[in-house]
Amino acid sequence: MTPIFILGLVLSAAIGLSLGLIGGGGSILTVPILVYLLGVAPHEAVTMSLAVVGATSLFGSFLHYLKDNLDLRGGAIFGLAGVIGAFLGAPLTKLVSPELLLLLFGTLMLVVAGVMIARRGGSGEEKKHHSHPVQAVLAGLGVGVLTGFLGVGGGFLIVPALVFFGGLDMRKAVGTSLFVIFLNCIAGLAAHLGGGGFDLSLTAAVMGLAVGGAVVGTVISNRMPAQRLQKVFALLVLGVGVVLVFKNYASIV
User: Fold this and answer.
1) Which of the pair, 211 or 166, is modelled with greater confidence?
2) pLDDT, position 12
3) Which among 47, 151, 201, 216 has most CB atoms closer than 10 A?
4) Contacts of 151 (CB under 8 A, 6+ apart)
């Protein structure tokens, strides 16, 4: 194993850590880790990402469920809409080049980092909003398309959507987000499997490390506010996004 490959395995734990802690974020790092550190081809990395993030999210959502931080009904409604969107988004992956796919990743990461950095801190228990089922379904569809196309769980979009459209407080939105991510990833994975297989042994190794990180992230999430760590993670996402955009934009132009 090369030092870069070992670093990729170590950082795989950060995927689960972020998912367990803030209900998202870690999934957007999975494809860059697989491609640039573990040597996986971009299109294969999308499929592997869905498997890793889906399994990690299922485990994390169960841990949050044990702490009563999971709304199964709300998550199922949002998630089923996301499943439809994921099947619509998956075929789009093969319509773009690997460089463009990673450029889109980088651009998305810059947007996400900006939103996370600009987001105002809450008091812990945030005010509930009235649920808007139609808007929630539309939001679920949009997140699902993103999941199928880019291979990300979409938790960075699901959490605020569950707060504003699902009427959940922030802590319960984190746990519910993981359940929704699991449903979206299963749909996206099913749609992608027809296009070819992937390295099962490497996927299992990354998955195991990510699940371990999810355990740690969930424990921290249930013991302390995630706002400060979310800001730090946003800076990491910003840095990776800048590198992806710079490298792949230069390749395309």
Assistant:
1) 211
2) 92
3) 151
4) 30, 31, 45, 46, 47, 49, 50, 93, 188, 192
Query: 73: buried, middle or exposed (CB in 10 Å: 19+, 13-18, 0-12)?
Result: exposed
State both tokens at 215. Answer: 């355990």
**Gyration radius (Cα) of the chain, Å:** 17
Q: Determine how many CB atoms are found less than 10 A away from the CB of residue 62.
A: 16
CA dihedral 159, 175, 180, 198 (to 10 degrees): 110
Give the DSSP letter of residue 67: T
The secondary structure of 104-116, three-state, reads HHHHHHHHHHHHH
- pLDDT bracket for residue 226 (50, 70, 90): low
Which among 205, 233, 241 has a CA at the least distance from the CA of 48?
205
- The token pair at 24 is 């998202």
Mean pLDDT of the chain: 81
Backbone angles phi, psi at 192, to 5 degrees: -85, -25
| 39 φ/ψ angles, rounded to the nearest 5 degrees | 70, 30
pTM: 0.77
Place of tokens 């009563």: 68
Round to whole Å and give the CA distance between 201 and 48.
11
Which pLDDT tens digit goes with each residue over 29-76? 888 899 999 999 888 888 898 899 999 999 999 999 998 889 888 888
Look-up of token digits 């569950």? 162
Q: Do 46 and 150 touch, CB atoms closer than 8 A?
A: yes
User: Is there a contact between 154 and 179 (Cβ–Cβ < 8 Å)?
Assistant: no
